[in-house]
Structure formats: structure tokens, C-alpha cells
Design a protein that fits this description.
Helix content: 10-25%
Radius of gyration: 34 Å
Number of helices: 26
Structural class: alpha+beta
Distance between the termini: 32 Å
Number of domains: 4
Number of strands: 57
Largest sheet: 16 strands, antiparallel, barrel
Shape: globular
Length: about 1250
């Protein structure tokens, strides 16, 4: 037996590996000495003597061994800097505040040392009058969530500061206002990286309970603080040139195990695995860490006001790349080598700290101090600035502009489309966007008593400016012309900063044209209709706003255009009649938080239903949570919320043409329905707000739905509609408006039908929630499949009914009942008759379950919690600490979805290949991240006329964290593989005999059930069995038709059974164009013929691959892959053998060119990025690559010593890190081979 790792050792080409390792070492060698990029001093420090320090941050990270002498020296010198700026000083400890395991519980080993270390750090707060703050690091989590909370309590008790520990309560994000021009945003990066299933109480005291919600909050905070300097404090750096970034000292390469025994080769290999695989979640290549940094870098890359401060790597670093300023100060008690990568970088691998001085909104300076042998030295300082806004003086603008101006949203050129384009996509409302209309001009100094621009808006499509008027009231000045770049960045490319990459592309032009599918002026008159219906509304006004002095620096991007100006619903407008003159105004997130907090908070469901039905009448599908504000009314001891819908951009959409309606039938776009006289699908029209509707409409009966529908039908009269539309600009009042009005009136007549249809959609799966107070849920099984659910609030001496609803199994398939926090009682009684499936979810604290008859009752709760179960044998107890299962998330309900992608490729064996991959995803209760996924792949091969069909089903969470998979595969009788005979030096005469000579037609069918599990770090485990039938189709004048080449029995159907186990680890920074990554897989099993039991054989296959950047700009990348396959006896057939040849191994040879009992291969590429170009469609990267492959097969009694080789290269092109196309030519001893393909990995 020659397993492939053995063959690496014996291979004569092993000497090629050593230079590769040496190259990796040289290009990643870090140092303990101070290092400076070639431009580190290019930008001199400004003379700051005349500047006043607005605020000083002293940054100390990883001070967890504060009792050590070197750390004591760091703290002593930092004390001097703290005393220099008085109360305008903040001391920030940047995580890993206690080594090695955070704060142990009281009485446990290490507690005393932990308190001592923390106290040394806290004592520094006594030396100055400013504030002290701690953020957590990964080591602070090593005693669990409980240890983190105890550390926080210890810090807060000592400092007596509310925000001494950021974020608090084990949450993900918090912000701290320093002054009017300076804010700190603190992120607990380990919170993001952690496996939440280990901590049943995680996020219990947090408003933000998902990772996505934390990142959305970061986006919101960055936008709110766009005019301030923002310090983003996060333990794990976004970029690092230390060991966590894959840069190691020479000592670490030679002594990888932290011992005095040198292991140079092993050290190289271990460090190579560490840096490429991300196997450590604490390295930047780790999956969760990488996902976090990609998203945050995308958010901050376009912002000049953000400075990132971190610890984690035990050194001092300054990194400037992609417009991001990264400060690393992690040398509070440990030291680790680092290097410089980018021109302006700095690094120092010794003990020390950093001082960040903020002089004004636009000027900052970071200074690094090294502390060694009780001597402090300034080793680097860097002036950090951002562009100051251009000042616009009064003389630049004429304040005497006319009262009215004729203007259009688009230029005429933007709406000129060919007849064929219009045939495909229709006319939209295109002509109204370039139609000049007369609009009032306005001077911001006098508008609403005078308004001042305060910041840009954060919309995902619109370009807007927030204006502030008297009494702190705010207004939104929103351009009618939207932004394609903003949509692409915030929706399509959340993890890749695109800047202006899509400018002047067909993608941008298509999006700008697609925006014309919404009428530019109808949003201004919807409030008039809502007024007649008793629906709260904003009061948008149309203005032409000239560039003017009052716009200040925003003149650069705003002004001289048409704008909508409307109130921003907020507490300062609580006297506004159109908002209902409420006591306050809140966001949807705040309302949902209050509804969870206590039963005293309620929604006026009838008012909300009225608005939602009106949304459907006007075809407005864009009703996500941020499109709402809520008027709050305090009534005695209760609070009632009523909705204020806003942002009516998507009313009356017009999707025409031949192609566009087909595109809109894709499930992910099906909610975007053309505005006709009827609603094609109420369900899909409500796709976006569906989860919110489920969360807020809980208790309304069919009669109440019909009452609201009839109210709309009665009060939305023809007169109301006509009067509202008459307020549109006269220029656009034509046959199109008449058609919209006609369609609206016809829809109004069917509103009762739509109400019942949508109520039926909401009733199919019903979410019922308690609050974070004690509740008693009484679920009573009634006759004829009915289930009654009563919720009682448990008071001190009695229970108070707060909800009572009955559900019918003809309408409702499942009830998801969440108790949420505190101690709840779930009682199921009655005799079930064809009952509804009831899922009971206890949530936090200690719950009690009483179930008389558990038919179709499933209980989910934390297995680590002490709950009481008085249930019968029919009740299914599903106890797990799985966070996603037990945590209430109102966004969890989701529709099922279909996606499809074509595939294309070519190689000489298959000819042109056309294919399709279609996925149907089912989203029900159990998800990881979906419930079920059905994938069908079909490929047609033009060279042989053969085709193959493949089905894969994935059924998640069937047993703990294990999932069930099922695969079925079929090939047509003309589907072919190649066979040249057994051996390492078989003959290929295709030049004389043709390509078909060695083709073997196989008709196959297989089914394979499996159990599999995936982990967050990239590991995949699978166990499967397979049943397979294979028949070799008779072919004359081919190699297999010669007597003795294959056994005669293979001409008949043969049946096989296989059992197999597999482990796979895969992690790449960017899958379609990786610069760093690793792949390892190993699978082994046993296959047996069901026709001849003695024909059975064990087998094992393995793959090991590395991808590694050679140059620090990642333009030159090295990739190599080792493959091995071993069959342990000779009881196999040729189509089960180990083979080499084809696009994925020996690329200069035909598919299955060599067949044997064992095979080994190494395939190596060197990829060079040549540049970027902006095509008419999307931006691309392009480059070349060269490759070299060698390998061989073995058979019994084979004395061949030949290693087959192929070499070649090709071109590649990559679109926005998502899709790669390759074309290449490789040459081997059989000749050359050309192939190309379009794929999602390199």
C-alpha cells in the first residue's frame, strides 16, 4: 500500500516543497524590533503646539498579566500620560484584561490572581480625573458568560461608572458619547465569534439578539455619528501583521511548540496550516472572525472619520490600508513579533502602549511608547486626518432665485431607450422622470422657520440630508433621483466595498432605469388618502432646492434638484395632528422591545390592519420595519401604539415588458408585483413585512379584519381618490394617472377578499408570545381540530387574562408559543381530535410544563435549565442548548424560496457542457440555516450526447446537530467516462483511433442517504450509505469491446452497496479568488457487490490543499493540492478504480487517463493578478496563471517508475469576488488540452 502521504515523502519532487516553505517563511517573517513601512514618515507630523487636545485616549491592551514586572512598568508610564490632560482623558483597556482564563468564579482556582491583575489596572483610574473603560477580549470569555459578567461587576463596583465596561451585560455593541464631536463605539468581537450554544443565557439582557442585528446597529451608529470623530474600539483588529494575521517570527517558525526543542520543518508546516486554514477562531483567517472583519471593513472603508483601536496581537502596530486607520495596542503584559506590510505601517514587538490625541473633528495623532528595562521610548507617532468639508461662502450662491423652477428628475438622455429594450422591460414611468415639471423653490433659512442640515441620511437607495428646525424638530430632504451605488453597496455587496466601481456600467444604468418603475410624484398625494381613512401620515412636499449657503458642505452632493421634504417622525412632533398628537413616537424595534417587556404595552391591531390593507390597495410592497414609526399613547397604566407608515416610494409600481415579468416570478423577487386592477398574489405582495405582521397582529378576528376592509371600502371614495390625485403636478396628470386611479378603485371593491386571503396566510403558522414577565399559557384541545390558547399574566395573588384565541386546523398548521423570559407555566389539556401541531418554547428561567395528552405537542427548552415536566409519553421533549432553536426572533418566519443558476464549460472529453443548478429552500421551524433544501443539477454533454441528473436533499436538525441528507444520481445510457486499461503507462491512440475509442457508455443510478454535521469553523462530518446500479452499454469498435478488457458480467446491471465516512475542512478568505485558504478531506469506506459478495473492497481518499499569498498585496498567489486514493484489494471494477486525468488533476491529459489501484497527484498553480477593468456590465479583476501537475497510479506487480507531468497556464477573470471564468491550456506527454469554465471557486 502506498498512501499518498507516503508518496509525498518518496517522491523525487519533494525537494520542490522546501523552497516553497522558505518563501512563505521569508514573506511572513515578523520581528520584535520596531519596523517601519517605506512611507511611514512620508507624511510629517503637523505642528500641534498651537492645537488644544479635545480628548486623549490612553490605549492599553492585553494587560491580563498586570502583576508582572513588565506590565507594571507599562502601567506606570501610562499613568504620566493620563495626568497630562485631566478630565478630558479616557483610559481604555482593549480586552484580554485577565489572563489566562478570565474571571473564575469565587472560590475557584485563579480567582485571587484574577482580582489582583484587574485591581492593578483599575488603580490607574485613581491617578487622573478622566474616565476608565474596559472592553472584553477572547480570554475574558474563557470563564464563560458568567465569568464575563463577574468581571464587569468587579470593574463597575470599583469605578462606580455606568459605562465602565463596554459593551455591558455580555452584549455585542454599545456607544459612548465623549463630547459633541467625539463618540466611541465599542464592539465585543468575541461575542460575535463565540459559539452561542455554550451559553443558554447569552443576550438575555440585550436588546440585540442576533449577529446581523449587531452589524445593522453598527451601520446605524456610524451614520448617526458621521460628523464626529468615531473611535471604534474592538478587541480583535480588522487588520493585523502579527501572528493572528499569519506573520510569525523566525523563532516561532523554528520553535512552534513554545519549547526549546527546534522543529524547523514541523514549525513551517504547522504555521502554514495555521495561517491558511483559520483553524484557530482567534486568527483573522478564522471563519467567524473573517466574516466579522469583512462586514465591518465594508462599513468603515468609505468613512474618513473612523479610527479603529484594538488589542489581541501582543505588540504595537499602526496599519493604514483601504482608507482604514487601524491602531493595535496589545502589548500591556505580553510581547509578540509583528511586521509591516503596507507603505505607511509601523510595528513593534515589545511591551508598550499607545496614546491617541484628538485635537478637533478632523485632526488626531497617535503616539506609540515602548517600555523596556524600565525605560520608555517614543517609537512612532502618526498624524491622522480626514478631509475637511469644502467651505461654501455666501458670495458663491445667488440667494435671489425664482419662486418656481421647471426641472426634471433625470435628463432626457437617461430615459432614451431602444425599442428592443422597451420590448424587454416596458416603459415603466420613464417619461415622467425626464419630464420637466414646475416646482416651488425654497430657501432653507426660511423653510419651517429655518432649518439646518445636520447629516446625511442612511437610506439604501435614496440620497438624503437630515435637516433640523426649531424645537429640535427634524425633517428629511430626500432626492427624487436615487443612487445605484448606494443600493449595490448596502444590499448586494455587504462584505465588499465597491466605491465607484459600478459607475458608468450597464448595471448602474439598469438600476437607475429600474428606479423609474415607481412613479416619482405619487408619494406626495398618498397622505391625502390616508387622512380620509384616519391613517397617520407624514406630509411630504415637493421642492426644487437650489444650491445655497444654508446647505453648507452638502452643496458638494446636493442641491439644484427636485426633493421631497417631510417630517421625520420623532418625539418633537408629538403635537402634530397627522401623527395623532401622541405622547411620544417610537421606532418599530423599540415597540417590539416594549411588547416583550410587559403586557401593559399593546398594538392597536385594527389600526395596523387598516394600514396594511391600504398598503395592498396601492401595491406598496416595501414595508419593512424601518418604514414605520409608532405613535405612543399613555392611557392610565397601559400604553397603546398606533402606526405611522412612511416612505411610499414603491406605491403603484409598473413592471412591464416581456422579460421583466419573467424575472419577477423568481421567488426572491415575486413580491414586486405590477400594479393592475387586481392583486396577483396577496401572499407574495406581503413577503417583506410578513414577519412583522405575524409579530404584531395576534388577536384580531375575521370579523375585525372585515370591518377594517369595509371601512376602507366605504371611506376611500372616488372623490377622495380623485381629489388626492388632482394635487399631482399638472404636467403628469394624463392617461397613466387615470389608469392608476381606475386600478385603485377596482382593487378597493375587492378589499374584503384580500383581507381574508392575507389573514389566511398569517394563520397558517401562528407565533404566540408572552412577555418577560410570568405568564400562564393554557392550551385547550377542542373538538373538530380546534385549539384554544389563553394567556394569563401571573400577578401576586391572582391571574389576569390578557389573550384568548381559538385556532382551527383547517386554517392553522402550527402554533409556535414562546414563553420568553421569567418563570412561565404551559398547560395543555383536553382531548385532541386531529390537533394542530403545538410547539412550546419556554425560553429563559425555570418553566413548568403540564401536558395531559401530548399528541402533536413538542416542547423545546434549554437542557441545562431546571424546568418541571409533568407530561405524558406522547409529548416530545426536545431539550437542547441550541441558541437559534430556543431564542425568539420575530424575523424567523419566512417563505420558501427557489433559486437557479446556469453552468457552462468545455473540455475535449465532454465537449461543450451546459447545465443548470436549481435550489428549492424550505424555511420551517428547525433551521440551520434552513429547514430543508432540495438541489437538482442537470448537465448535458455535447460530445457524447449524454446527460446526468443529480438530486440532493438536506434536512436539517434531525438529531441534535446532525442533519439528514439524501442524494440520487442518474446518467443516461450515452453518458460516458474513459478507460485506457489498468496501469501507469497505458497507451492513448486517440490521434489514430479517435476520442470515442476509449469512451465507455455507462448508465448509472444511485441513491445515498446520509447523516452530516457542519461546524462554524468549516469542519464537515458525514456518514452515508449508497446503493448503486451500473450497466456498461455495449459499444462496438471501442477499447472495452475487445475480449478480456473488462469482464463480460459488466455488460449487465451490477448492483453495489457502500458505507462511507468523511471528514472535510475547507476555509478560504474569498472562495472565488482566494489569497489564503486550506482544504483537507479524508473519506474511507467499504463497497460490496450485491451480485458477487466476494467482490468487495475497502478504500480511502484524501485531499490536502493550500492557497497562500506570495506578495503582500496579494497579487501573486501560490496554490498547491495533494490528492491520494487507495483501494486495499483487487476486488473492484474499472469504474471504481483510482484514476488520474482531467480538469482537476493532470490537466494535460484526458479524463480518467490512468487507472489503477492507488493514485497520487500534486497540482500546483501560481496566479498573478494583472489589473482591474470596468466593463460595461460589472467591474472585473483579471490575470494569468501557470500550473504544474505530476502524479501516477499503481497496480499489482507494476514496476513502472514514471511520473506523469503536465504544465501550462491560462487566463482568468473574476467579477466582484463572486464569479470566476477560466480558460487554460495544459500539455502532457499525450499532447495538449484546452478547457474553460465558469465557476464560483477558483
Amino acid at each position: 500500500m502506498k498512501f499518498f502521504l507516503v508518496n509525498i515523502i518518496r517522491c523525487r519532487n519533494i525537494k520542490l516543497l522546501l523552497p516553497v516553505f522558505i518563501v512563505f517563511t521569508l514573506f511572513s517573517c515578523a520581528s520584535y524590533e520596531a519596523k517601519y513601512g517605506k512611507e511611514a514618515f512620508k507624511f510629517p507630523i503637523k505642528d500641534t503646539l498651537n492645537y488644544t487636545i479635545s480628548h486623549r485616549f490612553v490605549l492599553i491592551g492585553d494587560a491580563g498579566y498586570a502583576a508582572r514586572p513588565n506590565s507594571q512598568q507599562v502601567l506606570a508610564y501610562a499613568k504620566e500620560k493620563l495626568q497630562e490632560t485631566g478630565e478630558n482623558t479616557s483610559l481604555f483597556y482593549l480586552g484580554d484584561n485577565i489572563y489566562p482564563h478570565g474571571m473564575p468564579a469565587k472560590g475557584e482556582k485563579g480567582r485571587e490572581a484574577a482580582e489582583e491583575s484587574l485591581t492593578f489596572q483599575l488603580k490607574l483610574s485613581e491617578s487622573f480625573t478622566g474616565t476608565t473603560h474596559f472592553i472584553p477580549g477572547n480570554h475574558d470569555w474563557y470563564s464563560g458568560l458568567k465569568g464575563l459578567e463577574e468581571q464587569e461587576d468587579f470593574v463597575k463596583d470599583y469605578l462606580d461608572q455606568k459605562k465602565a465596561y463596554l459593551p455591558g451585560n455580555g452584549c455585542g455593541i454599545d456607544d459612548l458619547k465623549i463630547n459633541d464631536s467625539l463618540t466611541v463605539i465599542a464592539i465585543d468581537s468575541q461575542w460575535f465569534i463565540e459559539d452561542w450554544d455554550r451559553y443558554p443565557t447569552i443576550n438575555d439582557d440585550c436588546d440585540i439578539k442576533t449577529r446581523d442585528a449587531m452589524l445593522n446597529e453598527l451601520e446605524s451608529l456610524l451614520n448617526k455619528n458621521q460628523n464626529k470623530t468615531v473611535i471604534l474600539a474592538i478587541h480583535h483588529p480588522l487588520m493585523t501583521n502579527g501572528s493572528h494575521g499569519g506573520y510569525f517570527s523566525l523563532r516561532k517558525q523554528l520553535f512552534p511548540l513554545e519549547s526549546d526543542i527546534p522543529l524547523p520543518v514541523l514549525g513551517l508546516f504547522l504555521n502554514l496550516i495555521r495561517k491558511t486554514s483559520g483553524v484557530s477562531p482567534q486568527d483573522i483567517q478564522g471563519r467567524q472572525y473573517n466574516a466579522l472583519t469583512k462586514r465591518i471593513k465594508t462599513l468603515v472603508q468609505g468613512k474618513d472619520n473612523v479610527i479603529v483601536v484594538s488589542g489581541h496581537d501582543h505588540n504595537l502596530q499602526y496599519i493604514y490600508k483601504d482608507n482604514i486607520n487601524q491602531i493595535i495596542s496589545g502589548a500591556g503584559s505580553k510581547a509578540e513579533a509583528a511586521t509591516t506590510v503596507n507603505p505607511q505601517d509601523f510595528s513593534y514587538g515589545g511591551s508598550g502602549y499607545a496614546v491617541l490625541d484628538i485635537y478637533d473633528t478632523y485632526t488626531s495623532k497617535v503616539t506609540y511608547y515602548a517600555v523596556k528595562d524600565d525605560v520608555e521610548n517614543k517609537v512612532f507617532e502618526k498624524y491622522i486626518t480626514r478631509p475637511r468639508p469644502k467651505k461654501y461662502i455666501a458670495e458663491k450662491f445667488d440667494s435671489n432665485f425664482p419662486a418656481k423652477v421647471k426641472a426634471s428628475v433625470y435628463t432626457p438622455e437617461m430615459t432614451q431607450k431602444s425599442g428592443f429594450y422597451k420590448f424587454l422591460f416596458g416603459n415603466y414611468y420613464r417619461k415622467y422622470f425626464s419630464m420637466p415639471i414646475e416646482a416651488n423653490t425654497v430657501n432653507l433659512d426660511t423653510l419651517y422657520g429655518g432649518v439646518t442640515p445636520i447629516r446625511e441620511g442612511g437610506g439604501h437607495q435614496s440620497l438624503s440630508v437630515r435637516l433640523q428646525g426649531p424645537q429640535g424638530r427634524e425633517y428629511v430632504m430626500r432626492g427624487l433621483k436615487k443612487s445605484a451605488d448606494r443600493f449595490l453597496q448596502t444590499v448586494a455587496f455587504k462584505t465588499k466595498y465597491i466605491g465607484d466601481d459600478f459607475n458608468n456600467t450597464l448595471t448602474e444604468a439598469f438600476l437607475m432605469d429600474f428606479y423609474t418603475s415607481s412613479h416619482p410624484y405619487t408619494p406626495f398625494i398618498i397622505g391625502d388618502m390616508q387622512e380620509s381613512l384616519g391613517i397617520y401620515h407624514t406630509n411630504p412636499e415637493l421642492f426644487y432646492i437650489p444650491k445655497q449657503t444654508a446647505l453648507q458642505e452638502y452643496n458638494a452632493d446636493y442641491g439644484n434638484a427636485l426633493y421631497m421634504v417631510e417630517e421625520r417622525p420623532m418625539g418633537e412632533f408629538k403635537n402634530l395632528k397627522s401623527f395623532g398628537s401622541p405622547d411620544d413616537i417610537e421606532s418599530t424595534d423599540d415597540v417590539l422591545e416594549h411588547l416583550r417587556k410587559s403586557p401593559k404595552y399593546t398594538i392597536d391591531e385594527k389600526a395596523f390592519i387598516r394600514v396594511r390593507l391600504f398598503d395592498m390597495l396601492i401595491g406598496d410592497w416595501d414595508r419593512h420595519t424601518d418604514q414605520w414609526r409608532w405613535s405612543r399613547f399613555n392611557e392610565n397604566d397601559s400604553v397603546i401604539y398606533r402606526p405611522i407608515p412612511r416612505d411610499r416610494d414603491q406605491a403603484f409600481p409598473n413592471y412591464e415588458g416581456v422579460l421583466l415579468p419573467l424575472i419577477m416570478n423568481i421567488p426572491s423577487l415575486r413580491y414586486m408585483q405590477d400594479y393592475k386592477d387586481h392583486i396577483r398574489s396577496v401572499k407574495w405582495l406581503a413577503f417583506e413585512p410578513y414577519p412583522m405582521d405575524m409579530a404584531l397582529i395576534r388577536n384580531s378576528s375575521e370579523q375585525e379584519w372585515l370591518e377594517e376592509a369595509r371601512y376602507l371600502k366605504t371611506n376611500l371614495t372616488d372623490k377622495v381618490i380623485d381629489e388626492a390625485f388632482s394635487k399631482l403636478p399638472p404636467e403628469v396628470q394624463d392617461e397613466t394617472i387615470e389608469e392608476i386611479k381606475s386600478n385603485l378603485k377596482k382593487r378597493r371593491e375587492d378589499v374584503e377578499k384580500y383581507a381574508l386571503e392575507y389573514r389566511a396566510v398569517l394563520l397558517r403558522t401562528v407565533l404566540i408570545t408572552g412577555t418577560d414577565k410570568d405568564e400562564h399559557f393554557v392550551i385547550t384541545r377542542l373538538s373538530e381540530g380546534q385549539t384554544r390558547v389563553q394567556i394569563y399574566s401571573i400577578k401576586k395573588h391572582h391571574e389576569e387574562l390578557i389573550s384568548d384565541n381559538t385556532y382551527n386546523r383547517k386554517q392553522t398548521k402550527e402554533l409556535w408559543i414562546y414563553g420568553l423570559d421569567d418563570d412561565d407555566i404551559f398547560e395543555v389539556k383536553g382531548k385532541p381530535e386531529q390537533p394542530i401541531l403545538v410547539r412550546l418554547l419556554g425560553g429563559q428561567n425555570n418553566d413548568k410544563y403540564i401536558v395531559e395528552n401530548g399528541k402533536k405537542v413538542k416542547i423545546y427548552d434549554f437542557k441545562s435549565k431546571k424546568n418541571t415536566y409533568e407530561v405524558d409519553g406522547k409529548t416530545k421533549l426536545l431539550l437542547t442548548d441550541d441558541y437559534e432553536t430556543n431564542t425568539y426572533n420575530f424575523k424567523k418566519p419566512a417563505f420558501n424560496a427557489y433559486t437557479g443558476l446556469p453552468t457552462v464549460g468545455y473540455n475535449p472529453d465532454d465537449g461543450f457542457k451546459l447545465g443548470l443548478i436549481a435550489n428549492y429552500t424550505v424555511n420551517s421551524f428547525n433551521r440551520r440555516p434552513f429547514s430543508r433544501k432540495h438541489t437538482v443539477k442537470a448537465n448535458l454533454y455535447f460530445a457524447t450526447g449524454g446527460f446526468e441528473l443529480d438530486y440532493t436533499g438536506q434536512f436539517m436538525n434531525v438529531a441534535s446537530k446532525w442533519n439528514f441528507g439524501f442524494n440520487a444520481h442518474f446518467t443516461s445510457p450515452t453518458y460516458s467516462i474513459n478507460f485506457f486499461g489498468y496501469g501507469n503507462q497505458t497507451i492513448n491512440d486517440d490521434d489514430k483511433l479517435g476520442m470515442n475509442y476509449n469512451r465507455v457508455k455507462l448508465q448509472t443510478f444511485s441513491v445515498a442517504p446520509a447523516l452530516f454535521k457542519e461546524t462554524p469553523n468549516g469542519s464537515y462530518f458525514e456518514v452515508h450509505t449508497m446503493f448503486r446500479t451500473i450497466e456498461v452499454e455495449e459499444s462496438n469498435n471501442r477499447f472495452v469491446s475487445w475480449p478480456g478488457v473488462i469482464p463480460d458480467y459488466l455488460q449487465e446491471h451490477r448492483q453495489y452497496a457502500t458505507i462511507n465516512g468523511k471528514y472535510k475542512f475547507e476555509n478560504y478568505d474569498i472562495k472565488s479568488l482566494p489569497a489564503m485558504g486550506m482544504l483537507f478531506s479524508i473519506s474511507g469506506g467499504w463497497t460490496m457487490s450485491l451480485d458477487q459478495a466476494e467482490r468487495n473492497f475497502p478504500h480511502v481518499q484524501s485531499v490536502l490543499g493550500f492557497t497562500h499569498r506570495i506578495t503582500r498585496d496579494e497579487n501573486l498567489v501560490f496554490a498547491t493540492t495533494f490528492k491520494g486514493h487507495v483501494l486495499f484489494n483487487n476486488n473492484f471494477e474499472f469504474y471504481q478504480a483510482a484514476t488520474l486525468g482531467g480538469d482537476n488533476d493532470l490537466r494535460g491529459y484526458r479524463n480518467q487517463r490512468f487507472t489503477g489501484k492507488e493514485s497520487y497527484l500534486q497540482s500546483t498553480d501560481l496566479r498573478l493578478t494583472l489589473g482591474n477593468f470596468r466593463s460595461s456590465i460589472i467591474p472585473f479583476k483579471y490575470g494569468i496563471f501557470g500550473g504544474y501537475d505530476y502524479g501516477r497510479v499503481w497496480v499489482e506487480n507494476d514496476d513502472s517508475r514514471k511520473w506523469h507531468q503536465s504544465a501550462g497556464g491560462g487566463l482568468w477573470i473574476n467579477g466582484v469576488d463572486a464569479l470566476t471564468a477560466k480558460a487554460f491550456y495544459f500539455h502532457g506527454s499525450d499532447g495538449g488540452r484546452v478547457a474553460f469554465g465558469l465557476l464560483f471557486g477558483f
